[in-house]
Automatic annotation (TrEMBL):
Stretches assigned to the DUF4371 domain: 5-111
Native source organism of the sequence: Exocentrus adspersus
InterPro entries: DUF4371 (IPR025398)
Name recorded for this polypeptide: DUF4371 domain-containing protein
Source domain of life: Eukaryota
Length: 152
């Protein structure tokens, strides 16, 4: 469910996730559907089986997203380590409201399939309204230190 919602760029949570709501958000609605297909999953998610824990809270959703993200980053790290060559690109974009974001993109040649793979690693808010170019350039090494620490 996590990978499906992320791939489709769908929001996980809805505006009203109360029991009475007709639409409790994509994650919970998809979990309800999956529960109709798997009896064990239904026991895990059905509130009638447990009044305290259903496995669908926002904390559980965030934990699942974080765990999935770590697995994906480990896979990317392994692919980069096995690649014959790789490159990275840092880019910044500012929208009309002066909100700046920095992205880091990795490109490498996959050693088995022999084609170029590209991964967008992150979008970080780097909004600094009063910063000059020197101040912004000081942020890049710190960002790379954090990024490469997560890749090592």
């Amino acid at each position: 469910m996590i990978i499906f919602l992320s791939t489709q760029e769908l929001a996980f949570r809805g505006n009203d996730e109360s029991v009475d709501s007709d639409n409790q958000g994509n994650f919970k609605e998809l979990a309800k559907f999956a529960a109709t297909l798997d009896e064990n999953f239904k026991k895990f998610t059905d509130p009638s089986h447990s009044s305290v824990f259903t496995g669908l809270s926002k904390t559980i959703q965030n934990d699942l997203i974080e765990s999935t993200s770590k697995i994906i980053m480990q896979t990317i790290r392994a692919e980069i380590n096995n690649a014959t060559c790789f490159s990275w690109e840092i880019d910044e974009t500012t929208d009309i409201s002066c909100f700046s974001q920095m992205s880091i993109i990795f490109r490498f040649v996959h050693n088995v399939f022999d084609h170029i793979i590209e991964h967008l690693d992150q979008w970080d808010d780097i909004s600094i309204r009063e910063a000059n170019g020197t101040e912004v350039s000081l942020l890049i090494p710190e960002g790379l230190k954090v990024l490469f620490h997560s890749l090592i």
